[in-house]
Amino acid sequence: MSSSRKYLQSPIAYRPSSSRMAAASNLRFGTNFLEAKSRNRMFILGMGFVGQFFAEELKNLGWIVSGTCTSITKKKKLEDRGFRVYNFDANEPEWSILEILKLHSHLLVSIPPLVGIGDPMLQHEELLRSRLMDGNLQWLCYLSSTSVYGNCGGEWVDEDYPANPTRESAKLRLDAEERWLNLGESLGLTANVLRLGGIYGPGRSAIDTIIKQEALSEGQRKREYRLYTSRVHVDDICQALKASICASSSGKVYNIVDDDPAPREEVFAYARNLIEKKWPGLINQFSEHESSSDTNIMGGLSGEKRVSNALMKKALRVGLLHPTYRSGLQSIIDKMENP
Question: What is the pTM of this model?
Fold first, then answer.
């Protein structure tokens, strides 16, 4: 069992920040504390694809998990799965949610910035800081994107590579990274940023796209002819998050990607092969998209980079469950009973 899993399964008491490193050290050796597991409380701002997977893992480890979503229907579904969920509208935020948030020991921020607004929670940063100052928070993590690096001409980039975002959404993410880290520091929290590659997993993969014969989004069309696309399976994102909870370092940025920034075309070819092997004759011959050569060229030149995960492996000691898209897609199709 990994040290991070031991930590997460152990009953952890709230401790002042000065004792966090000693507590983490004790837990690595399997020391059990008397306080109940329910003292570990995670609040997830934005229970989307990643947030839901991580919430399920923590719930299975005995944590109390709460979070936000943006629709009543989704709220009901999440509550039926055992989570405490609150509606949060970035246009009309209810700041009473801060009184709930401050009762939690851990905070995961998984909401994208909005054009014209930026990070919706940081609209009232001073209010956020003042309300959380005397709360129970010990750990904060902001989920960002490798898009903040911009176009790097196909070079390998690590966390020290100068971020140079070109798209507005990526510029807003970079701004949010700095502000969440600064907020964490001012509150005396362990605070880190995870820059995620393209996220995939069960229900959200090349296999699912092919089987459902879904039309490609504009972003997918632009990525289709790139030479490199960094990606990461949601299981490995959850691994990195758990490792970050265990880590004593703060104020750090980590790239969370797999080992193989393969082109999208290669990934889809492999996915088709897996589908054909499992369900012969299922795939109909159809054109996935209609696009001009100009669009394809733009897609190929935009955002080219190969993202390094060396720091994730060294500092967080994350051993990837799915080091390439091959094992990731294989695990997805293995769990599918029917197409």
Answer: 0.84
Give CA–CA dist 158/146, Å, rounded.
10
DSSP single-letter state for residue 177? H
Give me the helices (H) in the chain, please: 3-9, 20-28, 49-60, 72-80, 97-101, 125-132, 168-186, 206-212, 218-223, 234-246, 264-278, 293-301, 310-315, 325-334
Which one, of 41, 2, 6, 42, lies nearest residue 24 by Cα? 6
For residue 143, list its beta bridge partners: 194
Contacts of 193 (CB under 8 A, 6+ apart): 141, 142, 143, 144, 177, 180, 181, 252, 253, 254
**Sorting pLDDT into bands at 50, 70 and 90, what band is 225?**
low
Residue 22 CA to its chain's centroid (Å): 28
> Whole-angstrom Cα distance, residue 61 to residue 66?
14
d(CA 132, CA 70): 23
* Better-predicted residue by pLDDT, 294 or 195: 195
**Any idea of the CA torsion for 326, 331, 334, 337, to the nearest 10 degrees?**
-120
The H or E element containing residue 194 is strand 190-196
The model's pLDDT over 230-243, given as tens digits with 9 standing for 90+, comes to 999 999 999 999 99
For residues 60 and 107, give the distance between their C-alpha atoms in angstroms, rounded to a whole number.
18
Question: What are phi and psi for residue 169, nearest 5 degrees?
Answer: -60, -40
pLDDT higher than threshold 50 for residue 26: no
